[in-house]
What does this fold into?
Amino acid sequence: MKNKIVVIVFVIASIVSLVYLATLQQSKVHNLNEVEITEYKGEKLTPLNETPALGIKGKPSVDIKTYKLSVHGLVSNPLNLTYDDVLSKYKHYEKVVKLQCVEGWSSKLLFEGVLIDDILKDAGVKNNANTVIFHCVDGYSTSLPLDYIKNEKILLAYKVNGIILPRDYGFPFRVVAESKYGYKWAKWVVGIEVSNDPNYRGYWESRGFSNEADVEHP
It folds into this structure.
C-alpha cells in the first residue's frame, strides 16, 4: 500500500512539473514576442521611442473585443471584420519601410501586416472604383489611389519592429503608405471605403496638404 502511495505521489508531482514547465515556456514565448527588434536582415531599424507618435486627438484606445473593420462603398460584398478575422483570413507579409514626416523626421521600421488588396478582393471592388478612403477611430481620414494600393502591395499593419502595434502607433491597424508622407499612413483604422472620387480630401488634405503626398515630389 505504501509503495502505491509513493507511486501516485510521484506521478502527480511529475504532472504538476510538466504543467509548470509548459506554462513557463509559453510565458517565455509571449515575452520574446513582445521584445522590440532593432535589426532585420542586416538593416538597422529606428526604435519606436525615437519615432514621434502623432494624432489629431491624442492617442485613442480601441476595445478589441468589440472592434470591427468595415469595408464598404463601391463593393459588391461589404465586410465587417473582427481583429481575429483579419489576422486569420489573410496571408501575412513583412517589409522594412521608411516613414517620412512633413515635419522633417524619418524612421526606418519593420512592419508586418496583410495586403489591403487581399481584403478588397474579398469585398469585390466595383469597376468604377478608383480611390480608397481610410476612416479612423479619432475621426481622421485620408485616401489613396486604388491602383497604388494594388501595384505597390500596400500593407495594413498590425505589428511594428516585431511587436503588436502599441496604442500610440495605431493599434489595431495602420496603413503603411510606402513612398507617401506620414499623413497618408492612417492609424487606428476602423473603415475602408471604396470610392470613385479621386479628389476626396482627408483631414490634412482639406487643410492644404498635397493629396498626392509623394515623398519624391514634396
